[in-house]
Amino acid sequence: MNGTQQSNVLFVVLDTVRKDRLGPYGYDGGTTPELSRFAEEATVFESAVAPAPWTLPVHASLFTGLYPSQHGADQGSPYLEDETTLASALSAAGYDTACYSSNAWITPYTGLTDGFAEQDSFFEVLPGDVLSGPLASAWQAINDNDYLRDLASTLVHLGAKAHSKLASGEGADSKTPSVIDRTKSFVEDSDGEEGWFAFVNLMDAHLPYYPPAKYREEFAPGVDPDEVCQNSKEYNSGARDINDEEWEAIRGLYDAEIAHMDAELGRLFDWLRETGRWEETTVVVCADHGELHGEHDLYGHEFALYEQLINVPLLVKHPALEADRRDDLVELLDCYHTVLEALDVDPDAVGEGGATDFDPTRSLLSDEYRAFDGVADPDPGQRALPEGEDYAFVEYAQPVIELHHLEEKADEAGIDLPDDHRAYSRLRAARGTDAKYVRADRIPDEAYRLDEDPLEESPVDPDDDAVAGTERALVRFEEAVGGAWDDPAETTDDVDALDDADEETRERLRELGYLE
Fold it and tell me: How many CB atoms lie within 10 A of CB 280?
């Protein structure tokens, strides 16, 4: 490893934040003075690619160093199984570990908090016993049952609806300050043998947008959050139109949410500086995915792999990195190896069998980064790259929750969604610095020349020679992960997915409003 071991790592995910709304990436809207200050002493990565466009598979990749098709956590199977997490390896090595989040997916029932000695999801919507009790068991049993597997969304909908309740209305602006306060308390109380690892997810920029009044007045003056479209499925189904003025209001609310997160993050950064911990702490700040605000006629972060969703902000402060900007291609799942190297932890050495081995060619801190030629046991992304070419890979299995809600909104509006609607498609992409190729199983493949068309406004023919190398890289990746999704994904007719659920689980669902 690089010989510049640090005592601590602070890993911050700004959930659903697109890079073009941040000062370090050229935005002049004034949303992120604290991040801009941080960027002056960090490496700012211009081409960081997320392995998926939504929270669960991305976080599972951050915690395992694996692609989504390797770790298997998606909406059809919404939990991380049989994989030893980054937190488990660090805990075994003597580090204090904690995870603080207000994201409904980062909880014990998805397995994403496995290995953290301390965790709090600030998830008041669900009683604590739900996280490890009968509901979690029923959820897993349904997913593991062939007959019910495709219908697991009935329970998965808990997470989606809780997202909305957690982030909106009264008290919506209270979660991030609490997350920051708990992180400070954890750091202050830490007495681990080696140091600490704190993982923080800040959810403000996720729909719906209800920023604190102070920030709303600055970035969206006169905008009532209840008067604009806060449901992406209404727009994506065709049930609701949004004009330019409303889009501007929505973007203002989004900026206000980002500004609130930035101020709270600055409060944590300042405290680390004031208490003398800053210099011995590696700091990683990224987004798990971005958001669409009308681009490509889409709203939110579903049904697509466009740049606004997968080309995410990533800033890293570490002694081995220059305070500079880098435009080389990096993959967000490499943060797993980066943290291991920052703390000089080898999962094998601490007896954490099942954890992904440390790979210097996957660490942002290593001189060997992305020198894949000599890797003894290459992963699918490494096997897909011929010498002299570089690509990142993205996967999006069919979205159970979003599809269900989209169909509901379309049905309410009397709209029939065609069988070839993009919402029914599984997507995979190879993304290079100059081009992107997106494979779909129900809609035509898409290809873009990013060097000439960075906003992907003018797709090129997928057979164009300019994107042929990108498509070949995607073929190699598909072969490495078990083959292409050649056949269209099948959906299942509605049946009662709770037929086998016991009465205790049904009663819990009644209390939460999901059963009559």
Answer: 13
Measured CA angle at 37 (ends 33, 38), to 5 deg: 115
Q: Give yes or no for residue 503 having a pLDDT over 80.
A: no
CB of 99 closer than 8 Å to CB of 113: yes
Distance between CA 219 and CA 342 in Å, rounded? Answer: 37
Please give the Cα distance from 199 to 13 (Å, whole number): 8
Dihedral angle of Cα 72, 74, 76, 79, to the nearest 10 degrees: 70
Percent of the chain with pLDDT over 70: 84
Alpha carbon of 14 to those of 109, 277, 507: distances in Å?
22, 22, 35
Q: What is the Cα–Cα distance from 195 to 352, expressed in whole angstroms?
A: 18
| pLDDT given for residue 372 in this prediction | 93
pTM score, whole prediction: 0.89
Which pLDDT score, from 0 to 100, does residue 501 have? 44
Which string of b and e fits 216-236 if b means at least 16 CB within 10 Å?
Answer: beebbeebebeebbbbbbbbb
Sign of CA dihedral 362, 363, 366, 369: positive
Which tens digits make up the pLDDT trace of 277-320? 999 999 999 999 999 999 999 999 999 999 999 999 999 999 99
Whether the upstream peptide bond of residue 386 has omega within 30° of 0, thus cis, is: no
pLDDT of residue 494 exceeding 60, the answer is no
Beta bridge partners of 13: 201, 286
Residue 422: per-residue pLDDT: 92
Residue 172 is which amino acid?
Answer: A
Instruction: Determine the Cα–Cα distance for residues 59 and 78; give it in Å rounded to an integer.
Output: 12
Q: What is the pLDDT of residues 258-277, one digit of tens each?
A: 999 999 999 999 999 999 99
What tokens were used for 206? 């996720």
Spatial distance between the Cα atoms of 351 and 333, rounded to a whole number of angstroms: 22
Closest CA to 105 of 139, 75, 145, 67: 75
* CA geometry: angle 368, 321, 388, nearest 5 deg: 35
Q: What is the pLDDT of residues 351-372, one digit of tens each?
A: 888 899 999 999 999 999 999 9
Return the SS3 of 395: strand
The DSSP bridge partners found for residue 228 are: none
Q: What is the pLDDT of residue 109?
A: 74
Tell me how far apart the alpha carbons of residues 444 and 458 are, in angstroms, rounded to a whole number: 15
Q: Is the pLDDT of residue 43 over 60?
A: yes
Residue with tokens 């996957």: 362
**Do the bridges between strand 325-331 and strand 43-49 make them parallel or antiparallel, or are there none, so unpaired?**
parallel
3-state class (DSSP) for residue 263: helix
Cβ atoms within 10 A of the Cβ of 355, count?
25
